Queue: 4 jobs
Job 1
Amino acid sequence: MSSSTGIKKLQEEYKIIRRKNIFAAIQGTAAPIEKDFLHWCGCIMGPKNTPYSDGTYYFEIKFTNEYPTKGPIDVQMRTKIHHPNIDISNGHICNSYFSRWENTHNVTGIVNAIFDLLDDPNDKDGYRLTNEKKAKELNEKFATNDQEFDWNNSWNKGWNID
């Protein structure tokens, strides 16, 4: 693997993440897979007071050598989850943080964006048009902490890698 600018930038970010324990507040972690700085994995705990609380959610991020000029080429949830911003068939995460990428964005922002989506689904970034309506419904349920959606807790636990 060549020492591209993207890899160097990701190596620097990883050092900061490790040294500062960046994801402690969200009980999460992210790291390169087998020292491949263009391919990361991580996990976060489900946000409190949401249908995703008490769950552990694994994700995967793939970058190109053009990082940070270009954002990740893929961000996928590896834990099966019902969520309006996550494609149930492949785990692809739809989020404006990824699609409206700026070279000031970084791995920390990506992980925090995933956590924020679990905490508050985005009805403007619904994976499918039909999910946008569901996102609005979920937002209303979250606001009232309605337990109707607790079925997520039992299905979302564990790491489901195909």
Job 2
Amino acid sequence: MWHGCTHIAGLYPLRTVQQDFLLYGADLIAGLGFRTIKFEFSIAYNTTKYPNQDFGGTAANFTQLAQTTPFAAVFADARFDRYLLSCFSIAQPQDNAWAGKWTDAVGDAVETEMYDLAIHLATTYPTKEFILKNWEGDWQLLNSFVPQDPQRRAWLNAYIDFQRRRQRAVRAAMRDVSTGGRVYYAVECNRLLDDYGLRVHRDVIPVIQPDMVSWSCYEVIEGWTEAGGSITDQAAIEADIAAKMERGKTLLMMEGMPAGTPVVLGEFGFPQEAPYFPGTLDAVGMLDAVLTNGVSLGFAGAVYWQGLSNEEYGAGLPRGFNLWSRNGGSDTVGARNALGDYYAGIL
């Protein structure tokens, strides 16, 4: 099982003079030994996602963003073999367009943008692997972060078309490329364990039959987070992680995912620096539980969220979800934490 780390919207360090935030974070991740890294491609690339990074201009679509000097440098970096790109259309930056705003014209633009990106990546970097994907599809399908919110079946039809077009674009690109290249499309789900309502693993993946499936698996570690957490014993939480990971993998196979489809843990992490993180729990042990069970259950890869925290519980105070701590307002990171040390030992 391969290991990856995310670099998206980190809140530090402040590279205001250097203007190289994207490159600085990628260098940290490569230096730790990761050969897989995850980025976001979206209209917010030069604001909230990679602030203080000189892109040399404005990108109007995915391909133009991939061609900017910072991304071209990272994609050519010999220290990385694999890239996951969470893609939100730049050419058609509708906010969840399937929720009442989906048209053939929007779909055509989305499909063309994805096809052009896949062609560019496959022909420019034929020895590298790229996994293009959505982000947490169940939240997208629900158009909400509340699992119990009402759902509209009309949105499902549009969402299936959204995913179908993106998968079709990648497959068409791979058919049309004669120089090799390994570009795949993954559909990401994030509410596998819910036993009600419309869900991506039941209602989308069996229809799309994607190249890969990604599971953003925070639901695996629910039960202790923030106020009202029910598990405070380390052995119990590690056993709970194992049981939920096995249940999730089983549900994917039971609900119609084609046999042999690679499944990756596309996102997981622990807010180990937040004051509500239970003092009785060891984040390193929990990380080890996810990775150990990931290997035994046959997951193809696992991507940690993330190198640099993108959330705070107070001004200047990261929640965790990081491998390097903040060093105040410095233009460099603080110390590598215990989770970073763990990865340094296995990579």
Job 3
Amino acid sequence: MPLPTSIPSPSSGVLQLGPFPLRAYAVCIIIGVLVAVRIGQRRAEARGFSRGTVADMAVWAVPAGIVGARIYHVITSPDAYFGAGGHPLEALAVWRGGLGIWGGVLGGALAAYVFCRRTQRDFLRLADAVAPAIAVAQAIGRVGNWFNQELFGGPSTLPWAVRIDPGRDGTVPGALTYHPTFLYELLWDLAVAALCIAIDRRIRLRRGQVLALYVGLYTLGRAPIEALRVDTAHTFLGLRLNDYVSAVVLVGAIAAFLLLGRRRGAEPPAGDVPPSPGTDDDNDDDDRHDDGHDGDGYDDGPARREEPEPREVTA
């Protein structure tokens, strides 16, 4: 018998609106994107970016992130689609779940980088603004896993165990409640977002360090959660493929955080990139100004004053 305090699972992840099915997983992703854009835009504007920058970037990054996440999932779990009894066309059914976070991060980051290059914006500074927002979006997306009754852990009798219908992938005969690993990750995602924002406010970080901090913290918490999961996955030497990927990403994030923190020299100005030298600008007649900037975006120190020539004093 399920414990009275266990978490019930929705009977269905689909709500019928007349002839149209409304899938909870897709709704959670959409809500997550909208919330992330809102949070990211506020943080971006505080860094001097123009209004609408994050929304414009999301038009590039979100589709690329979803495609990348799906490709990563299919590559790391191919048997369900290309193995014995698999259905290759199911690889396109994103709305049924199955998105790999690292493929999503990579696809979205590449698209965001292209966007910043084309619009002459600082990629690292903008990535620092949206990194905590991405963690919040991930947390909201995990609610979709609850509706789909997926990404749960092994059998559990804890008060917060989740009820899973028998016969689903990973269920154990006789067990009705399991570790809600999707809930554990949801809570960790929110903690990562809060930690990134708090550290960013209290410590003077260099460009790109908030992004590296987000990746490192998320990976650090993902490892123990991954160990609890029982869904089908490829393993090597007793560890899931995601464990190896996470280990490599964690080392890379730590190295990036340390290297970015050791950079010397003035940081580029906050916000959108100023006009390039040689372009017409109503406010600037020359690339060098009296405030010590020479048009390259870096501070060259106080403007040098011209000393008057000494005058002869005659008796």
Job 4
Amino acid sequence: MKYGIDVCSYQGVIDWKRVKKAGCSFAVLKCIRKNLALDTAFTRNVAGCAANGIPVSVYTYVYENTPEGAVKRAKAAVKACKAQGLKGCTIWWDVEERSVFKTGAAARAKATASILAARKVIEAAGFGFGVYCDADFYTGMLNAQDIGGKWWIAAYHGNPVTTIGQAPRYRKPTIANELCGWQYCSRGRVPGISGAVDLDMAYDDHFASAGKMATVDGISTRKRTVTNATGANLRELPSGEAAVAATVQEGAELAVVEDWTATNTAGGSTTRYVCVNYAGKWLWCAERLLE
């Protein structure tokens, strides 16, 4: 059993170094939004987890309940993961939108067809597939045994404020399918994250092992040169207030991951940062300092 978190853009800029030190063994990252565009924190969070050796899987909140809509979302999730260099991770199908999924036999059958269509696309692309929902949704709105596969269940039992690593004072959910993970709190507290965050327990490697989770490797980079006369600070986070991990001189060449960018607005000005691999670490550099 391992402790982890699931996060999205709502958590803001996360200090993944502090999160790892606090005992986080894995992270589940939101990859795409309702309109199928990238979650605005996805790139930054992938880079932060990679820099700190935190295994990841991803999730997408589902608004579609037809096979056609599910296939479209599944393809977008796969594309998002591949663009970030994630290989073989589990993509969790987050089914909880009660305006879309309904009770009754016909509604259950419709949901089953939709979910299985998504599963086919995701597994064919080389990724794992699992379903996330709460305990009531599992028993009341889905034909879970027809869907099969891996499950991640939310059940809070009062939902007290809890610190990561603090074991819940109640038992995990019992389901007929394979329980891979339990989201046991939505009011979690983790150093490095401002405000509340979901806390999870993992029971198998679909959450917490590099065997099933993605490790970031094979990332393509290109060389860019520092053109600023006073050099460039490489920071642990994409922010001018973040700790400086290294300083490089004018003329230095840096290996830049073109797809990993983040913007930060402070004092009325916006700075775009790019992620660089320097001395075996993933760090951030203001793009205006590079050619």
